[in-house]
What we know:
By secondary structure, the chain is of the alpha/beta class. Helix content is about 45%, strand content about 15%.
Amino acid sequence: xxxxxxxxxxxxxxxxxxxxxxxxxxxxxxxxxxxxxxxxxxxxxxxxxxxxxxxxxxxxxxxxxxxxxxxxxxxxxxxxxxxxxxxxxxxxxxxxxxxxxxxxxxxxxxxxxxxxxxxxxxxxxxxxxxxxxxxxxxxxxxxxxxxxxxxxxxxxxxxxxxxxxxxxxxxxxxxxxxxxxxxxxxxxxxxxxxxxxxxxxxxxxxxxxxxxxxxxxxxxxx
Length: 222
């Protein structure tokens, strides 16, 4: 089953079990964000990706520049372990990891979660790629992805025992918009996907195709 169908099937079941009015609230807030989010402030294809270094789930610092020495890098920003759509996405990317690595790519997932929550994400999804903690959303802010969750959604998360301060360690209630970038060894962005609607994610097949294009281009110029 592909990621898109998994996301759709989960959404249908999720709506069925939600309290009355909750689905309409989520839809309205997605459209509100779509109207106000400045997507033009996020890195576009062809632009240079911001440099960063973040700790992984084991506490080791991982930097973009160092990773790019070995090949292209895939950076995906997700909301957190509490988000079921994120977990579906990360598991789908894990299934495609052999193809990604075979093409020379390295996958990194970034969230504002505290390191122990990133470790939980790794363990609950059996992930074998870098899961990085961007506490305070410093890197996500450099990518132009950060927004503040509105009060109505804060209340919904609190009601579901998913209050962001428990996961992120601060009271900002800030999140990154889910986004995925494929970055070439020259730090130029080859593929940029920013999802205003958190219920939609870039298919792993698009990542693999982008990496294949990078390899093909390298072969033609070598």
